[in-house]
Design goal:
Layout (H helix, E strand, L loop, with lengths): L2 H8 L5 H20 L1 H4 L2 H26 L7 H18 L2 H28 L5 H20 L4 E2 L11 E2 L2 E2 H19 L1 H11 L1 H6 L4 H27 L1 E2 L7 H11 L11 H18 L8 H26 L1
Antiparallel strand pairs: 1-4, 2-3
Helix pairs in contact: 2-13, 4-8, 4-11, 4-12, 4-13, 5-6, 5-7, 5-11, 6-7, 6-11, 8-9, 9-11, 12-13, 12-14
Length: about 325
């Protein structure tokens, strides 16, 4: 067996960036196990991690698709809140399993509409993605406040038990997150739509000359983000048994951090979906680990995420310049 065969045999299954994230995750679990073995390494804590990461993990997947296409979606949190409020209000008026099914379908449709609206603003009206989604998040939050009257929309009954379900001790929300990751990875890496999204993000002008429908591809990317946000909103509604217009405002920065940490280029056209999944898990494991130290205030966490985001951006810029040489 020669050296090249040995490298192939023992190589990790992903690309360079995703492999690095996998190594970081393994190292982080080892560190937490050594320093906080009794309180951290247990089934209950891992189940809690799986439940907590699902909501912003799904929104991060949607953000990643938009970034691959050369855009960004700052409205995902407020799309999730609007979908959660819409579903909660339907459940309040229609009891039973029929009301739950109707509420979920309406929430998915609302998420699809919100994503389509964002895509039209960007593709048809040529508004920069950051400004378009910044404006639309104010719009979606306003609609949520009008619908809910500025108060919390609460639900009870079977739907609130949804996130408590475990399958082989794995929380159902985490299973949904993994399934969405697998499906989205297949779409972005194995389909014509995925190839078009990467080409649009790499060079929009070249993609246009190649015969790609830029407007349709952009709208489809934001539709995916909207649907993923609606699923996150439904899971949040079940976990908290309530929904509010301004819930999860800190998730916006977290999703950006996760996507960039996952190896998606903010300039578009580069990055893999599995990297986002590993970055989500790393961030939540680190967050749960910090909770083991009561002396560390939660106010420092946003500072840490901001520093981490800047550090990753600087690192990515340095690496891209080195590769270009």
């Amino acid at each position: 067996m020669n050296k090249s065969d040995t490298k192939k045999k023992f190589s990790l299954p992903f690309d360079e960036n995703v492999n690095l994230l996998l190594i970081i995750l393994i190292a982080l679990v080892i560190i937490t196990g050594v320093t906080k073995s009794d309180s951290f390494i247990n089934t209950g804590n891992f189940q809690s991690i799986g439940k907590q990461l699902t909501e912003y993990g799904l929104m991060s997947l949607g953000m990643g698709v938009c970034m691959i296409c050369g855009g960004i979606d700052l409205s995902s949190v407020y799309v999730a809140n609007l979908c959660g409020i819409s579903a909660g209000m339907i459940m309040q008026n229609y009891a039973g399993s029929g009301g739950i099914v109707l509420a979920c379908l309406v929430a998915l449709f609302v998420g699809l509409l919100c994503g389509t609206f964002n895509g039209i603003l960007i593709s048809k009206l040529h508004i920069p993605p950051m400004l378009a989604t910044l404006g639309s998040y104010e719009l979606f939050m306003g609609i949520s406040i009008v619908l809910s009257g500025g108060s919390t929309v609460s639900v009870t009954g079977d739907f609130s038990k949804f996130t408590r379900i475990n399958i082989f001790r794995i929380p159902l929300p985490f299973i949904i997150f993994i399934l969405c990751t697998i499906i989205l990875n297949f779409i972005m890496s194995r389909t014509c739509f995925g190839n078009r999204a990467y080409l649009v993000g790499t060079n929009e002008k070249s993609a246009r000359f190649s015969g790609i429908n830029i407007n349709l591809t952009t709208i489809q990317c934001y539709m995916i983000s909207g649907v993923l946000s609606s699923i996150a909103g439904l899971i949040s509604l079940s976990r908290l048994s309530s929904a509010k217009a301004n819930f999860g405002t800190s998730y916006t920065m977290q999703t950006i951090l996760v996507v960039v940490l996952g190896g998606i280029s903010p300039n578009g056209g580069y990055g893999k979906i599995p990297g986002i999944a590993f970055a989500v898990i790393i961030l939540q494991v680190l967050s749960s680990y910090l909770n083991q130290f009561p002396n560390i205030s939660n106010y420092y966490r946003d500072l840490m995420w901001g520093v981490a985001l800047l550090a990753v951006l600087v690192f990515n810029v340095k690496m891209s310049k080195r590769k270009s040489r």
